[in-house]
């Protein structure tokens, strides 16, 4: 009976049940105990010592590798700060020279192969330009062919160009405008800018003010003339607007923000550009719609040469002129003190 | 002329008008006005698309009283209408989803100017899609450049200003290059409208006249528009700009603005120069190399990033590489795949930028991966949107990215000689790399945060509102719809492209 029991203990079943009950084989744990008891302490110590040694060596190796890396990085840093700067600088200079020379040679070669400038046989002198020159006055009512071309034949491009000016002004507003706080009190930055600007503002500069008094009306009048006469003589919205803008800037420089802001504030800018660009867009929407659908637009062209002629070109010139003048003035103000 | 045919013109003018009017509105009114305009533009273009599907071919629309070689024109076909519809929809959803944290990035008094820029960027995008006139395209490239720069610098801190400056310098260089190309082309042909240009260029190619200027024109236009669309070796401005801009701007810039330039380049290749002339030059080979390098090196750079938005920005460079690779095959199938991939990227990238921003906001504005652990549980909608957009970028079936990758590889198979192996290898490698960084991030944001992290999780400054989440999820839905029902769109692209040449 007892023998059988002992055997049962060693069968698979018995071992399984035992392990379920005790978690591990008591025989194994016995073995482990016995081994532990008989273990030679010196061997353990030797092993431990070996481990520590290995660990030390490992640490040393890691440290050496790190030192090497740090040294390398230090070397690279030093090199880049001393000699490397020169070498890389020279490399960049050399590369940029090579690229520039390549592009120059390429473009020179191209220009040599282009049709000669002003030659009557050049491809640019074709039926397109011929119609602009021969029929331009008849079809657009504008004596100034350029005005007829940009504001009637290719009016969509010009709408895009005015929008470029407007969007540029908006981008500068984002970048440079210094806003008041929500309750309307000026921020620290705004106060500092104002003070800074006042320090540089010429106060009662007799010569400047005297000449500005004479010049500003003349400049503004010239600008208005160039805008209004844009369909009759060289000029138009872009050039006239630039003249008006220059006149406004002159006035501002002579008399300061306090007087200029009596007639030109941020609100003036938004109102004027909103009004002129909306008018431009709406007028051209109507005109394009009529043109594309073959409906007569009903805008009279008038007699070429009269001041009230050439259909939409005159009002569009005025719109473009106002946008350009405002944009120039606003650019100046924003760059000077970050506001109007 | 049917009344529907006016709709593209109306949508362009509507955007420009919106850009003018929003400057005087306050920020809330400006936001609603812009959203309304974007949605109206979507509806108008969708109707136009339906009209072009019902009729054969395309039509030219006179912008004024004067016909083709004298006046401006836009041209409306299936391809243009389809792209305009989807791009305006993406613009609407991006703005609707992304404005939730604009207050963190932009001064309140200047936010109406942000919407001015968004309106005008949409107008410029539409004009670049529709225009039939090369100079009009240039004018609107200028508008697009200024608008994009302002969209970046609406957030005013040092990093943003530096990257906006870099953007400006690179893009003005590109503008100058493009303008030089256009004026030289005018010098040798005497035309600015695309159909007339195509005839003149074909005649020049036949007669062998002005060959050097023609080659230089192609080079200048390719380089100019390549810089603007962040093609690989000219991409240095892109990662900084996309990382430091407000997330909604980054979405608009990488998703929509760059696509306008690529589509313009496709138009120049097919409708101005003619693809036969382009194939005779070697410019496609250069684009092929740049595209392949961009696909691989862009992804490699993306893997190395610690900042999640920088990773998405570099991934953008890789995706633009795919588009240019498809374009450089010079075949119909390749270009169709490239245009479809453009769409895929335009839908996925805004979703990625905005959902990443929402998750970083919910994780205390930390942008590195370490803090994003479990972020998808903090902002569930953003987590889902990020996952779906990532899957689309990797190219997992049922998403739109899968279709474009299949199309790209089947188009690549028909390439002669060694090129097909390079294309397949690059596609496989790039997909693998995409999977490494995108799916890793997805796994990371869905990892359960430890108890300690849950307790210390900061509450977001401005959580997304329901409407933002809805718009973000709509972008994801669009990705899946495009992946399942890609047929009609590919049909439109294919037919539209056939009518180009």
Give the tags:
heterodimer; A: 340 residues; mainly alpha; elongated; B: 501 residues; two-stranded antiparallel sheet; 2% strand; globular
Number of strands of chain A: 0
Largest sheet of chain B: 2 strands, antiparallel
Q: Helix tally of chain B?
A: 22
Structural class label of chain A: mainly alpha
Q: Beta fraction of the residues of chain B?
A: under 5%
| Number of H/I helices of chain A | 13
Structure description:
The complex is a heterodimer of chains A (340) and B (501). Chain A is mostly helical and 340 residues long. Chain A contains 13 helices and no strands. Among the domains of chain A are: 38 residues, no CATH class; 195 residues, no CATH class. In chain A, α6 packs across α7, α7 packs across α8 and α11 crosses α13. Chain A starts with a helix and ends with a helix. Chain B has 501 residues and is mostly helical. Chain B has a domain of 220 residues. Chain B contains 22 helices and 2 strands. The longest helix of chain B is centred in the middle third of the chain and has 32 residues. Classes of the chains: A mainly alpha (340), B mainly alpha (501). At the A-B interface, α5, α6, α8 and α12 of A face α1, β1, α5, α6 and α7 of B.
Short description:
With 340 residues, chain A is mainly alpha-helical. Chain A has helices spanning 2-10, 12-22, 26-38, 41-81, 83-113, 127-140, 145-153, 155-176, 188-200, 206-228, 237-260, 266-293, 313-337.
Write the layout of secondary structure elements.
The complex is a heterodimer of chains A (340) and B (501).
Chain A: H1 2-10, H2 12-22, H3 26-38, H4 41-81, H5 83-113, H6 127-140, H7 145-153, H8 155-176, H9 188-200, H10 206-228, H11 237-260, H12 266-293, H13 313-337
Chain B: H1 7-21, H2 27-54, E1 59-63, E2 72-76, H3 78-98, H4 102-105, H5 111-130, H6 134-153, H7 158-189, H8 194-207, H9 211-228, H10 237-244, H11 247-273, H12 275-280, H13 283-303, H14 308-328, H15 332-362, H16 375-378, H17 380-394, H18 400-413, H19 419-445, H20 451-456, H21 466-484, H22 487-498
Antiparallel strand pairs in B: 1-2
């Amino acid at each position: 009976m007892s023998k059988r029991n002992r055997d049962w203990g060693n069968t698979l079943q018995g071992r399984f049940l035992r392990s379920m009950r005790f978690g591990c084989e008591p025989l194994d744990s016995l073995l482990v105990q016995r081994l532990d008891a008989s273990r030679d302490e010196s061997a353990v110590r030797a092993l431990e010592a070996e481990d520590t040694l290995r660990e030390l060596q490992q640490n040393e190796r890691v440290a050496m590798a790190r030192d090497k890396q740090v040294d390398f990085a230090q070397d690279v840093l030093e090199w880049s700060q001393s000699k490397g700067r020169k070498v890389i600088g020279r490399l960049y200079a050399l590369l940029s020279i090579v690229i520039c020379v390549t592009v120059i040679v390429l473009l020179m070669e191209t220009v040599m192969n282009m049709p000669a400038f002003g030659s009557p046989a050049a491809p640019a002198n074709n039926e397109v330009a011929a119609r602009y020159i021969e029929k331009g006055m008849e079809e657009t009512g504008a004596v100034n062919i350029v005005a007829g071309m940009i504001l009637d034949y290719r009016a969509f491009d010009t709408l895009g160009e005015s929008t470029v000016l407007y969007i540029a002004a908006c981008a500068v507003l984002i970048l440079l405008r210094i806003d008041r706080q929500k309750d309307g009190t000026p921020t620290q930055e705004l106060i500092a800018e104002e003070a800074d600007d006042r320090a540089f503002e010429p106060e009662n500069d007799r010569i400047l003010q005297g000449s500005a008094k004479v010049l500003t009306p003349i400049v503004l009048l010239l600008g208005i003339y160039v805008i209004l006469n844009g369909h009759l003589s060289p000029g138009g919205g872009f050039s006239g607007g630039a003249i008006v803008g220059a006149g406004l800037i002159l006035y501002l420089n002579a008399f300061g923000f306090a007087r200029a802001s009596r007639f030109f504030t941020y609100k003036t800018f938004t109102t004027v550009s909103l009004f002129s660009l909306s008018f431009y867009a709406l007028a051209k929407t109507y005109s394009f719609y009529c043109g594309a659908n073959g409906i007569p637009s009903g805008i009279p062209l008038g007699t070429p040469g009269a001041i009230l002629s050439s259909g939409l070109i005159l009002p569009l010139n005025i719109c473009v002129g106002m946008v350009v003048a405002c944009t120039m003035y606003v650019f100046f103000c924003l760059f000077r003190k970050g506001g109007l | 002329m049917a009344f529907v045919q006016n709709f593209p013109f109306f949508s362009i003018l509507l955007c420009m008008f919106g850009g003018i009017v929003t400057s005087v509105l306050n920020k809330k009114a400006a936001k609603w006005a812009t959203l309304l305009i974007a949605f109206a533009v979507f509806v108008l273009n969708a109707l136009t698309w339906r009209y072009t599907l019902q009729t054969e071919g395309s039509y030219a629309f006179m912008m004024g009283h004067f016909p083709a070689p004298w006046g401006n024109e836009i041209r409306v076909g299936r391809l243009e209408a389809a792209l305009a519809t989807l791009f305006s929809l993406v613009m609407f959803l991006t703005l609707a989803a992304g404005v939730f944290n604009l207050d963190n990035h932009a001064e309140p008094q200047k936010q109406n100017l942000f919407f001015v820029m968004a309106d005008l960027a949409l107008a410029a995008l539409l004009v670049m899609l529709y225009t039939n006139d090369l100079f009009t395209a240039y004018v609107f490239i200028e508008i697009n450049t200024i608008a994009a720069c302002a969209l970046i610098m609406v957030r005013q801190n040092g990093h943003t200003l530096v990257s906006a400056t870099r953007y400006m310098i690179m893009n003005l260089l590109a503008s100058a290059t493009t303008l030089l190309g256009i004026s030289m082309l005018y010098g040798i042909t005497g035309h600015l409208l695309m159909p007339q240009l195509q005839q003149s260029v074909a005649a020049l190619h036949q007669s062998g006249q002005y060959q050097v200027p023609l080659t230089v024109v192609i080079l200048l236009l390719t380089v100019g528009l390549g810089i603007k669309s962040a093609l690989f070796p000219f991409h240095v401005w892109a990662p900084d700009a996309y990382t430091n801009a407000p997330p909604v701007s980054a979405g608009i810039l990488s998703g929509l603005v760059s696509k306008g330039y690529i589509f313009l380049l496709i138009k120049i290749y097919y409708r101005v120069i003619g693809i036969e002339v382009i194939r005779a030059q070697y410019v496609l080979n250069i684009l092929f190399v740049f595209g392949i390098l961009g696909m691989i090196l862009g992804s490699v750079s993306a893997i190395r990033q610690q900042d999640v938005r920088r990773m998405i920005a570099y991934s953008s460079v890789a995706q633009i590489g795919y588009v240019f690779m498809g374009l450089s095959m010079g075949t119909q199938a390749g270009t169709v795949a490239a245009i479809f991939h453009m769409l895929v990227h335009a839908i996925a990238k805004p979703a990625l930028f905005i959902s990443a921003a929402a998750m970083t906001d919910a994780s205390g504005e930390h942008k590195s991966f370490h803090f994003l652990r479990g972020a998808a549980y903090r902002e569930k909608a953003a987590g889902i949107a990020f996952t779906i957009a990532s899957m689309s970028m990797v190219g997992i079936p049922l998403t739109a990215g899968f279709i474009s990758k299949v199309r790209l590889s089947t188009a690549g198979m028909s390439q002669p000689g060694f090129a097909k192996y390079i294309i397949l290898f690059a596609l496989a490698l790039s997909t693998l790399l995409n999977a490494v960084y995108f799916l890793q991030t997805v796994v990371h944001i869905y990892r359960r945060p430890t108890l300690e992290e849950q307790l210390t999780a900061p509450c977001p400054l401005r959580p997304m509102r329901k409407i933002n989440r809805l718009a973000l999820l709509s972008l994801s839905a669009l990705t899946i719809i495009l992946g399942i029902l890609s047929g009609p769109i590919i049909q439109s692209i294919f037919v539209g492209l056939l009518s180009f040449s």
